[in-house]
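Human: I'm a chemist; would you kindly supply sequence and C-alpha cells for a protein?

Assistant:
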Amino acid sequence: MSKGGMTRGGYRFVVAWAVGMIVVYGLGGYFGVRQLQGYKAESREYRQAWMKTFTAAGQGTRAPEVRASGGAKSADVHVGLSLNRISDIELRQANWTADFDIWFRWKGKSVNPGRNLQIVNGTILEKKKVRARIKNGVRYEQYRVRARMSNAFDAARFPFSSEGLAIAVTDEVDGADVFRYVADGRGIDISHLAAPQHLKITRDLAVVGLQHYASGEGGADGSAGTDTVHSVFVAGLLIRPPSVSLYLKLFQALFASVAITLIVFFIRATHVDPRFGLAVGAFFAAVGNNIYVITLLPPSERISLANMINGIGLGTIFLALAQSAISLYILDTMGRERLSRVFDMVSFAALFIGYAALNLVLPLAAG
C-alpha cells in the first residue's frame, strides 16, 4: 500500500478518535441533563413555596385574626389588585417595575389602609388615590401605584424556566391587631396589555397572611420585646419567556462561531492560515458571546444552562483546533494524505452530530 493510503492502524486510529468524541459528548450530555433535571426539581419545590416568602403563616383569602392587648377585634379590610403593566425587567439587577391599581373596602372610621400603604419587596415610586366613596357605612378607596419591585431570578435554566413575580403589600404603621386583609377570592385582574409581548403569564393568585417584624422594644422589666405582626396581601404571578426564540438570540453568535469552525475540516491541513485562523477567530468570538450572556444574567455559583451551552461551544472549537494539529502532523510529517482526509471527514461528522445533539438535549431537559 502506498504511503498516502489507509492502513489498518489508520482505520483503528480514526475509529478510536470517533468513539472518543462520542464518549466526550455523551458524558457531557449525561451530566448536563442530570444537573438540569435537578434544577428542575428544585424549581418545582420553589414554585410551591415561593408565595410563602412574605406570609409567615395562615395563607388563604383571610389572614388569621390577631387581637389587640385589650381584646378588641381587628377590622376586616377587603383588598383586590388589578395589574396594568409589567415593565423594565432586569434579570441581573433582580428587579422589575409594576403598575397596578389596588382597592380597599372596609367598615368604620378607625382604619385607613391606603394612607400608610407599603410594598414589602419593593419601593413605591408613585401613588395616587383615584377613587373614594362611602355607601351604607362601607368605605371604598382605590389607588394607582407604580413600584419598583425586587425579585430574585434563577438563571440555572434560563430561558426555559418560569419565573415567579410577587407584589407584597402591607401597612407600615397599623399592625394585624388593628386590621387584617381579606382577599376577594377572584385572584388578580390582569390587563391584556399587562405583560410585554414576549412574556406569557401562566398563573396568578392572591393570598393573605401575616408578617412578623422584630420590634426591638423590650419590656419595662428588661425582658425581650415581642414581634409586631402585620397583615400582608401578596399578589403572585408566574411568567414564562419565549424560550426557543430567546435561546437562539442569546447564542446566535456562538452557533455561528461553531459553524465557521466546522468549515475548517474541508480545508487541507497544510493550508495553515485558513485552517487554524478561522478556528482561532471563532474561539474569540465565542468568548465574546460568553461575556455578553454573563452580563445579562444574575450572578450564580451554579453551572447554568447558559454556562453549559457556552462551554460546549468553546470545547467544540478547541477540539477542532486539536484535530487540525493532528491532521497537519499526519499529512505534513507522516505524508498520509488519505488518512488525513478521512480523519477530517470523520471528525466533522462526530463534532457536528455531538454538538447539535447536546444543543437539542440540554434545552429539552431544562424546559
About this structure: Residues 53-59, 218-223 have pLDDT under 50 and may be disordered. The chain has two domains: 8-41+244-366, 54-241. The radius of gyration is 30 Å.
